[in-house]
Amino acid sequence: MTTTHFGARLAEAMGRHGPLCVGLDPHPRLLADWGLPDDADGLRVFSGRVLDAAAGRCAAVKPQSAFFERHGAEGVRVLEEVLAGCRERGLLSVLDVKRGDIGSTMLAYAEAYLADGAPLAADSVTLSPYLGYGALRPAVDLARATGRGVWVLGLTSNPEGAQVQQVGSPSVAARVVDQVAADNAGLAPFGDVGLVVGATLPATPSVLGLDLSAAGAPVLAPGVGAQGASGADVARVFAGLTDRVLVPVGRGILAAGPRPDDLVRAVTTWSGQLRRDLAPG
Ligand SMILES: O=C(O)c1cc(=O)[nH]c(=O)n1[C@@H]1O[C@H](COP(=O)(O)O)[C@@H](O)[C@H]1O
């Protein structure tokens, strides 16, 4: 068990390394571009190079579970190695699995990703609240008990998200944000329950009815790079909150491979750019 809560560990890592989180999404197309086979061995080489380029140069790495699961047990074994590799390199892990289920099943998911000693234990995990935020309780509680964190989907970066998330007044997403705020109360500089809010939003979260400033939550802001958003968009969408925004960049960095030097350059360039774009004032 870690004694320091996740929000504090994240704030420390972002203070040291800036807002970049490298997205580890081994798309089959990228494996081919890197001259690697679309199998577990290819995943292993790809992931090792990405972790080596990220180590010491960014706060966190976000492995996307789907690209490992598509290779079955051998792919999941590589994902376990990736999570161990993050720990060895001092990188915080954001395991992107977007889980969300009825409470009793949610406990099993929580134990899979957030329990000490679990083969797939990560520092944090993405969750979907769209079976009801309360159903996530076992994961929120276990994360807190073990010094880990969760990232709850608020407004996602895909255009279809609004069909569910922005319905009602207050919207479904605004209600999720209010419940996240209650769970983060009293934790500084921010809590263990983060929010996922896309950098591709057409307007600021407050214009869309979300009070992020009161949520006490770190924000994961996907959509930068391949999905079209820039660091300047992150600064515009999250004006006044940029101190708590973690920015995942996947294909925007991974396309620079396969040469290690080129990957390091892409990580360094994105890191510097995001630091400048998100600097206060
Ligand atoms: O939870 C996420 O990470 C996520 C939420 C969201 O709203 N949009 C989104 O793109 N993502 C994930 O972020 C990553 C984006 O990858 P790139 O577009 O290559 O940077 C993918 O792994 C997506 O599954």
Automatic annotation (TrEMBL):
Pfam families associated with the record: OMPdecase
Catalytic activity: orotidine 5'-phosphate + H(+) = UMP + CO2
UniProt superkingdom: Bacteria
GO molecular function list: orotidine-5'-phosphate decarboxylase activity
Orotidine 5'-phosphate decarboxylase domain: residues covered: 19-266
InterPro entries cross-referenced by the UniProt entry: Aldolase_TIM, OMPdecase_type-2, OMPdeCOase_dom, RibuloseP-bd_barrel
UniProt keyword annotations, A-Z: Decarboxylase, Lyase, Pyrimidine biosynthesis
Identification of the protein by name: Orotidine 5'-phosphate decarboxylase
UniProt organism field: Ornithinimicrobium kibberense
